[in-house]
Amino acid sequence: MRLSLRLGIRYRLFIAFFAATCCVIISMFVITRISFERGAFRYIKGIEKERLEELARNLEELYAVKGNWSFLQDEATSWSILVNDAEDSRPRGDHHHRPRGKLLEGHGPELDMELLPPPPPRHHHDFAQRVLLLDGKNAQLRGQPGPWRTEPYLLPLTAGGKNIGSLGLVPPKFLNDLRIRHFVSEQHRTLFLTAMCLAAGAALLSLPLAGRMVRRIMTLAKATNRLASGEYGTRVPAESWDELGQLARDFNRLAQTLESNEQLRRRWVADISHELRTPLSVLRGEIEAVQDGVRPLNAQTMEVLHNEILHLGRLVEDLYELSLADIGALHYRKRELDWAALVAQTMESAREQFRQKTLALQYIGPTSGLPLWGDGERLRQLLANLLQNTLRYTDAGGRLEVRLVAGKEQYRLVFADSAPGVPAASLERLFDRLYRVEGSRNRARGGAGLGLALCKSIVEAHGGSISASAAALGGLQITIELPING
């Protein structure tokens, strides 16, 4: 049986926060420890430098009295006594505070032993072992012979303005002073305990912080599940302006879009059902009337049936083309064409229909010379749908004015007809599928409400835009802008 360990996002976040905090704490601990040890070394070097300077002054004073280094052979002024004397001294602001006894007063080679400091503790011997004395010719007189681990620090010795030698000190490799080592150890323990306390605090803070973030993520996850199951009214609170808050607002916009699309889909299905049921009901009624002998099967009856079949065919064809446009399967065979000539020819071919409807058609614009990259058949369909829209809805005795204007990068085509107009609230919805302004959906006055939706698809496929507004003639104005390059 295979055991799979699955960590939730809460514990993953906790591990991530805690690991990041521990890395910071460890880095601070290591850096602080190294910095403290270096500071301790600098402190020791500073003290030893002061001791070395003190010893140098003592040697210079004794050399000035004796005139040579022979005093190092005397018991009272031996090398070990002088080094230990300087090692146990403490700076007091006066560099000449050390008593020199009878030797410095000229009373003989012996020093007053009662004035000398007590013997140094054993842990001070490391300093004495690292001190070197060289004469004026760099010959070593005292100290451990070379080679040394590192180059010694040399302090020149002078007496009466004459170079009498050098006093050197080999830098320590480790902290040998027991008191300093004990102090450093105490500081390391303090740093370690502080790091442990910080790590424990980070652990206590990381868990609730991770839990809070996970709660917000789980809220989004549950809302997503409800949205996936069809509850499009689901919303989540967006309480912050961070990334999770932005994600919540994006989720709410997505849910609102899906809810709106679902409403459009239901209305779309209902409208299609209504549009298909109406011609089918008429056909069924006419056929049943003929079967029951109520209506004779003559040319007039056949014409009614034929008109209903044509209307049903147009509706199915429009639905099919609109569905192809939605999935991107509506084919466009673009080539370079003359947009002005296409518009002028279409207007001219529609004049007879406008005359029969007692409507005036006026075209204002060039009749040729406007190259455009597009699909001629789809553009003719666009113009035909706009003309049919005017024929269906414009009152008798009215007029349609079509104006074509050429710009530097695009062409502007305006269809403006006379009354009746369209309410301002309906202008933005004119290009929706199956939308018609009249609430009764009178089929005798208008079509299925798909013509303008197809027009929008064709215009957008050519990279243009289409909009509706109130016309100065009292009716509807449709404005189309097409880029020259299609």
If you had to describe this structure to a student in words, what would you say it looks like?
There is one protein chain. By secondary structure, the chain is α+β, with helices and mostly antiparallel strands. 52% of the residues lie in helices and 14% in strands. The chain has eleven helices and eleven strands. The strands form three sheets. Strands 6-8-9-11-10 form a five-stranded mixed β-sheet. Strands 2-1-4-3 form a four-stranded antiparallel β-sheet. The longest helix is centred in the first third of the chain and has 58 residues, at 9-66. The radius of gyration is 52 Å and the shape is elongated. The model is unreliable at 1-5, 90-124 and 439-446 (pLDDT under 50).
Helix content: 40-55%
Radius of gyration: 52 Å
SSE ordering: HHHHEEEEHHHEHHEEHEEHEE
Physical arrangement of strands within the biggest beta sheet? 6-8-9-11-10
* Mean pLDDT reading: 78
Strand content: 5-15%
What's the number of helices?
11
Main β-sheet, in a few words?
5 strands, mixed
**Quantity of strands, as a count:** 11
Overall shape: it is: elongated
Gap from first CA to last CA: 64 Å
Low-confidence stretches: 1-5, 90-124, 439-446
Q: Structural class of the helix and strand makeup?
A: alpha+beta
Keywords:
disordered N terminus; four-stranded antiparallel sheet; alpha+beta; elongated; 486 residues; 52% helix; five-stranded mixed sheet; 11 helices
Short description:
This protein is of the alpha+beta class. The chain has helices at residues 9-66, 79-87, 101-104, 125-130, 178-228, 243-291, 299-327, 339-349, 351-356, 376-393, 451-461; strands spanning 131-135, 140-142, 153-159, 162-169, 335-338, 360-364, 371-374, 399-406, 410-418, 465-470, 474-483. The strands form three sheets. It has a five-stranded mixed sheet with strand order 6-8-9-11-10.
